[in-house]
Specification:
single chain; alpha+beta; 4-stranded antiparallel sheet; 7% strand; elongated
Length: 731
């Protein structure tokens, strides 16, 4: 691989204008396709095969409105006489009539006719039913429905819209700009000049632009969940900057060794580029592995992020060498920090730290493990759920509606269940449905039932209002109780009973994702063991790397539970609503962090192996490996933390915990696991770290990741290569 990347780097350096033109043309073309053929993303977290989804699919022919989008409209007033005062009733009635007349709205029952008034008489609740699916509701329709309620607002009535149609879709709030600024500062401090620091930012932005435009283009033909482009942006920016930094750092080192820019760029592409390709493949494999969960929207998220990583790798090994050709020997122009990344004889902070670790490996290992175990303790209390109106930021329309309903009607009115009673095979369908409804009302977790809807076919919908909200454990238990007690509930009539609705669907999705975690972790661990065995030809190194990765995951999940489920750091991090962790955060964290953790493992341990192979004692090789990689790994980790952490400043209930989890995960993995536990473990292993069974050594293919075979050909017989030396044609 190193040979081909060497040739590619040299070619891109020489044909730099063509390479730059191709990437810019690709960016413009894909961006144009997104503008012309792109579509909107979806907010429906559907999982085929769950009971709630299967039931919904079965009844949508009989009750098509169940597959359509809906919204709550809440009218509230503190005025004397409450919402039932004649002037308020007239204003609300006019608003309801105007909402019903909006194109795309199927029905809006009058809350006064249905009796949907709060016990204190201050709030009226209406349900807006659209005539299309949730994904087909346009922003223009939502705005028109909002505007139709103006008569009520003019009368002094507070109007808020909530429910599925008005929950804000996953989005970025501009905080990523802060991440880019911090990344730029880290690059300037690490590389020492504005020119060198600007190259990773430029390449990352071009790569992310191509990837994001591609995702939105595909959204015109496929259903893509709204979190997919956000995850692609998050991961694409982080790895795009880091991969360019790895190659650029190696290029500058070669320049200080006296190589010509073209040769330096080619060799950097061959060596650091090989590590980038290998690391990128691990990230892609992990993200594509999300398909193991069998959850379509999660698969789409993984594929979107994988696409962003593929583009980032291609940009790093083609566009970056071309830009290095434009920079030439002026890579250090516009210096702002004289202590740039250079090969000097002075002792570095990383070397001093590594020396401390190898002198006291057991103490460092125990201290690090104690800290990680303490951080991981909250993970034992992990509860999963999907965000709803109560998870939206305070002050948003959806959150206002949710809170009004919660206070005035009870939390269960925000978590209605739909029990489907198929009594077509019974002698008296109506009586059978009424009997089931009566037995449902007697269940401990039920607050009330709304009037059943009976179709002539004998199928009925029985709306069940729980006593607790959508995130409460008692609501999940009620769904379980109904399903477990079907035979008792049908009372010997033979009626079929199923549970569906948004609340039940979210509970099913969370359970499905929780069940998918163990096999997904098993797949990830298997991939890690195979890839690292290929890279290092060792048994202990892959096992140690997997153990460190699992520690990073559990510690990160512990931090997420403490902040988003328990409410710790409430004054520091603006969490919209404390409650269950978004159900796909753990599996996403595992997928993304696995690839990133392998980046640091490859970069640090490959240096240790290189020095050990060249004759250094095991502990000296550990110090040398950390000395060579500490500064770049530190910079790369800080950049990723800045990019991921910038998404925590937003208020999106999905994006915020994902960004927090990844930022904490990278911090723990880079600075505790890779920079402390790994050197300590390697020092304790000694020569045993590089033991590999002879039988495996014969069958496992050799991966020339550090380009040793290439370097041997470039520098035959150990002699130095003059600047500008060409690679022999046989390479």
């Amino acid at each position: 691989m190193a040979t081909y990347l060497y040739r590619l780097g040299r070619l891109c350096f020489r044909r730099r204008r063509t390479v730059l033109a191709v990437w810019l043309a690709l960016l413009i073309a894909v961006g144009g396709a997104a503008a012309a053929f792109g579509g909107t993303t979806s907010e429906e977290f559907k999982v085929p095969g769950t009971e709630a989804q299967a039931t919904l699919d079965r009844i949508k022919g009989t009750f098509p409105e169940q597959d359509h989008g809906s919204a709550q409209v809440v009218f509230a007033t503190e005025a004397p006489g409450g919402i039932a005062a004649p002037e308020n009733a007239r204003a609300v009635g006019e608003a309801v009539a105007r909402i019903a007349a909006v194109p795309g709205v199927a029905a809006v029952p009058d809350p006064y006719a249905t009796g949907a008034l709060s016990p204190d008489g201050k709030v009226a609740l209406g349900l807006v039913s659209f005539d299309g699916r949730l994904g087909d509701i346009t922003d223009q329709q939502r705005d028109a429905v909002r505007a139709a309620a103006d008569p009520a607002r003019a009368a002094g009535v507070t109007v808020a819209f909530g429910g599925d149609a008005y929950n804000e879709m996953a989005q970025v709030d501009g905080g990523e700009v802060i991440g880019l600024i911090v990344a730029g500062v880290v690059l300037v401090v690490t590389l020492g000049s504005l020119v060198a620091a600007g190259l990773p930012l430029v390449t990352a932005l071009i790569g992310v632009g191509v990837a994001m435009a591609g995702v939105f283009t595909l959204a015109g033909s496929f259903e893509i969940i709204s979190t997919a482009p956000v995850l692609a942006l998050m991961v694409g920016l982080a790895v795009g900057i880091d991969y360019a930094l790895f190659i650029l750092s190696r290029h500058r080192r070669h320049l200080t060794e006296g190589l010509e820019p073209e040769e330096a760029a080619a060799r950097a592409n061959a060596t650091a580029g090989s590590a980038v390709v290998f690391a990128g493949l691990t990230v892609v494999a992990a993200l594509a592995g999300l398909a193991v969960a069998g959850v379509p929207f999660l698969t789409v998220m993984g594929l979107a992020a994988s696409g962003a990583v593929v583009v980032a790798v291609l940009v790093a090994i083609t566009l970056l060498p071309a830009l290095l050709g434009f920079a030439g020997r002026g890579i250090d122009r516009l210096p702002v920090w004289r202590r740039a990344l250079r090969t000097t004889g002075r002792t570095t902070l990383g070397e001093r730290w590594a020396g401390f670790v190898v002198r006291r490996p057991l103490a460092v290992l125990l201290a690090g493990l104690t800290a990680l175990v303490a951080l991981a303790v909250p993970a034992a209390s992990l509860t999963l759920g999907l965000p709803g109106g109560g998870s939206q930021a305070e002050g948003t329309d959806a959150r206002t509606a949710y809170d009004l309903v919660d206070r005035s009607f009870g939390p269960g009115f925000n978590a209605p269940l739909v029990v489907v009673v198929d009594a077509a095979g019974t002698a008296q369908p109506e009586q059978a449905v009424q009997g089931v409804a009566g037995r449902l009302a007697a269940l401990p977790g039920v607050q009330t039932l709304l009037p059943p809807q009976l179709d002539p076919s004998g199928t009925a919908l029985v709306p069940v209002i729980p006593k607790t909200g959508p995130d409460h454990a008692d609501t999940r238990q009620l769904v379980t109780d109904i399903r477990d007690q079907r035979e008792a509930l049908q009372g010997g009539t033979g009626a079929r009973i199923d549970v569906t609705g948004t609340t039940a669907a979210n509970i099913d999705v969370s359970a499905k994702l929780a069940d998918a975690l163990p096999p997904f972790v098993a797949v990830i661990v298997g991939i890690a063991l195979v890839l690292l065995a290929l890279a290092f030809r060792s048994i202990l190194v892959p096992l140690k790397a997997v153990a460190g990765f699992l520690l990073s995951i559990t510690a990160s999940l512990g931090a997420v539970v403490a902040v988003y489920q328990w409410g710790w750091l409430d004054g520091l991090i603006d969490v919209p609503k404390v409650g269950p962790v978004v159900s796909f955060v753990p599996i996403l964290l595992i997928g993304v962090l696995f690839g990133l953790a392998m980046d640091y493992e490859l970069f640090l341990v490959s240096g240790m192996k290189e020095h050990h192979v060249h004759g250094m004692a095991p502990r000296e090789a550990v110090v040398a490996g950390v000395r060579g990689g500490a500064r770049v790994v530190t910079a790369a980790a800080l950049i990723m933390i800045a990019v991921f952490g910038s998404f925590v400043f937003g208020h999106d209930p999905i994006v915020q915990p994902i960004g927090f989890a990844l930022a904490v995960g990278v911090f723990v993995d880079a600075f505790v696991v890779r920079m402390a536990l790994v050197p300590a473990a390697m020092a304790l292993f000694g020569r045993a770290a590089w033991w590999f069974p002879k039988r495996l050594d014969k069958v496992v293919p050799r991966v020339d990741m550090e380009g040793e075979q290439l370097m041997a050909r470039l520098e035959p017989a150990g002699s130095g290569t003059a600047p500008g030396t060409q690679v022999p044609e046989r390479v």
